[in-house]
């Protein structure tokens, strides 16, 4: 399995919401979201997205992923610069998942907006190195356009009927679009980059990353990882640090403990078993390592998460 596939095995999107937005005239809106990943799928027309200092024009056939979407603005190409009104309340109360962005004039865009929640611990390192707006997946590439086209048809079909598994299908759809956006972005990275995702393109480092994510419970050493990568120990250690930004075993420990936190939240295994799953030989060693990173013991972490669930209900 390739490194990106392994990396994304424990990256899950959930509670996906979707909306059909149709714009006419000189429309504009703002959306303020915390801890969400958003996608725009442009069915027809074109418009602009403004996140901070970054502006992107989206056209028919494009899919754009907003990896940092706390606040952004979308508007028609002919927008006159007036203050954009918040769309948050309208999205919460819209009927049949459809909104008309009508300010008078001719129709100029039709799009699907998708909002996803995600596991913050598992996705945090990934989002930290992504731009606010990922490069669009566009119709200039036939294969990518086919992916988008098929998924749009699937989403449209699912939105028209209430069937068993509807939520699961839409969550998977969003995950596919995230993967497509990520690999397009990674493929566009220059050979010389300080972005650790560049390791996914490195013919040596990608092998080491894949096995660390695929078998975190294994007692990996620098020597063992260097053998997997097909490099000398010293060359591998230096190359990994230069590209990823940290030593190999530091990266492995960080991943193990983020994975442990996910397992604790899932409530499916005992704390002792979770320690084994992420490569710790004893409960005490696991507890000490977890507390160094998260500030509390695995037991306290699980209890705190359970209390949050009860409170939110």
Summarize the structure.
The protein has 313 residues and is α+β, with helices and mostly antiparallel strands. The chain has helices at residues 3-7, 88-93, 120-127, 142-160, 166-188, 205-214, 222-229, 233-244, 248-266, 271-277, 283-294, 298-312, and strands at residues 13-24, 28-32, 37-51, 54-59, 63-66, 71-76, 85-86, 98-102, 107-118. It has two domains: 3-188, Jelly Rolls (Sandwich), CATH 2.60.120; 198-312, Homeodomain-like (Arc Repressor Mutant, subunit A, Orthogonal Bundle), CATH 1.10.10.60.
Secondary structure elements and pairings:
Elements: H1 3-7, E1 13-24, E2 28-32, E3 37-51, E4 54-59, E5 63-66, E6 71-76, E7 85-86, H2 88-93, E8 98-102, E9 107-118, H3 120-127, H4 142-160, H5 166-188, H6 205-214, H7 222-229, H8 233-244, H9 248-266, H10 271-277, H11 283-294, H12 298-312
Parallel strand pairs: 1-8, 2-7
Antiparallel strand pairs: 1-9, 2-6, 3-4, 3-5, 3-6, 3-9
Helix pairs in contact: 4-5, 6-7, 7-8, 9-12
